[in-house]
Amino acid sequence: MFKRASRLSFLIGSFLMFLFTSFASAQIPQIPTGLRWLNSAQTTTGNWPAVETTEYYSTSAALDAVYVFEPTSSTYTEGLTWLSSQAVSPTDYLSRRIAALKRAGMDASAEVEVLLYYRDLVVGGWGTHKGFDDGILDTTLALQALRSANYSDFGVLFQAINYLTSNQKNDGGWGFKDDAVSNVYLTATILQMLASYNNVTFNVQSSIDKAVAYLLSKQNADGGFGSSPSKVYESALALDALIASGSNVSAVVPATVNYLTTSQSANGSWNDDPYSTALALRALASVRPNLSVASVSFTNPMPREGETITLTANVRNSGYDSASDIVVRFYLGDPSAGGMQIGVDQILPSLSVNSSSQASISQSFTGTGGKTIFVVADPDNTISETSESDNKSSSRIWVATEPDIAVYSEDLKPSTYVPSAGTAFTLEYKVRNLGESETGAFTISLYDGDPASGGTLLQTGNISGLTGTEVRTGTIGVTLRGDGAHTLYLVADSGNQITELTKASNIA
Ligand SMILES: [Ca+2]
Ligand SMILES: [Ca+2]
């Protein structure tokens, strides 16, 4: 076995996969000045020079940053051309190259093949080259590269991730060697990578939680991270990774942003170093809002056909930056499965961090039965967020059938079938709403004899509205005059339905 060279003495870059394209966002002034400096620092051959680290790391980090803001710029394309033209062989260079190629939509299958050839088949990690001792950083970078290439061999990924999580120290961090203490740089890099696999291929939440706790404990009084004094590259990587972790880290973000913005040089750079400048820019860009639809509610979740109701979405910003001009769009059905927009786009003027606001439309529906209302915040994705996958929510309504009042003869029960003439008895009855909508108040009338052919009105009563499908039981006092057979008729909401009491009393 070869021993891997020690690389503890210099900075090693890292990359992130940015899956989104350019966004027009309200930028803090440090971003455009930093970008201008980064553009000016590119050499005529397309690369960025080595200052605090090698030109390959500088260039790879600079491309990560430029891609976030100006993915179609000549700066980006010339940098990518330089990066992809370099002959590289160590695991870390190869991994950065794979990520850069895949992000640009280019083929990296040959590079992935070499990377997999380097893999230690026993331990499952990666060293600098084939046959080198496994290393934490090389394994992390290889996993990042395989993620960007959508590599999916579960066994390979599992063994490598397990190698890393089993080397996580008790304090939640990682160090370069078994006996070394944890450090911010390595822990942030691994946390970023683990977050990209969490809930996609693996559940590494407990490892993520421990890494977050470690990093949070390493924030310095100046708001930055790293072995005090704070370092720009460590602060930037830690901020990026903490946000990517999905944990709520709002308590530390403002101070770290302040550290980064105040440590920018007058010329727009950080430390006159492309690598630090790129990481700082990328970290500042990761401080984004996160919009989500917290709930969808209705003034009446069970309207009748044609009834206009108000649909309200509660939109929340749980991110780290404010958002403005937020489009909120309502759909009947899932928009990703043919659902159609209802109402017109609603615009929320602004949402500050940790605030929420409501958007509403008025709408009526045709066709009875269950319907699902979807609401999407920022449906055209014009606002860059820390998560783009939580912007949709839904809730069910039921469009109800019309009310339908009914009384049935078997629901009419006199207290006696042989009452004496002139003696009061009671009649128990049930009135039913066969429909799903509320009836509103109505009257019931009891007749002696068919009301359509001269029956006598005995009693009229008021019934308060029946809810959908409600059955209401009541009683009426009755006194019949005259011997002989009587047939009682109960009429609910005259005109709706008449029922005949067939078991007529026979008075002796
Ligand atoms: Ca979101
Ligand atoms: Ca968005």
- List the quaternary state of the chains: single chain
* Helical content (DSSP H or I, runs of 4+): 25-40%
Radius of gyration: 36 Å
β-strand amount: 15-25%
For the termini, the CA-CA separation is: 116 Å
Number of strands: 17
Q: Describe the main β-sheet briefly.
A: 4 strands, antiparallel
* Order of strands in the sheet with most strands: 4-3-6-7
* Overall pLDDT: 89
**Hetero groups:** calcium ion
The third-level CATH topology of the domain at 291-399 is Immunoglobulin-like
Low-confidence stretches: 1-25, 502-508
How would you describe this structure to a colleague?
The chain has helices at 30-41, 55-69, 74-85, 91-103, 109-118, 136-148, 154-166, 184-197, 205-216, 232-244, 253-262, 274-285; strands spanning 291-298, 309-317, 323-332, 340-351, 355-363, 369-377, 392-399, 405-406, 413-414, 424-433, 442-448, 456-463, 471-479, 484-486, 488-492, 497-500, 505-507. With 508 residues, the protein is of the alpha+beta class. Among the domains are: 291-399, Sandwich (Immunoglobulin-like), CATH 2.60.40; 405-507, Immunoglobulins (Immunoglobulin-like, Sandwich). The strands form 5 sheets. The chain has a 4-stranded antiparallel beta sheet, with no helix packed on it. Strands 8, 9, 10 and 13 form a 4-stranded antiparallel beta sheet that branches. One calcium ion is lined by residues 378, 381, 383, 385, 388.
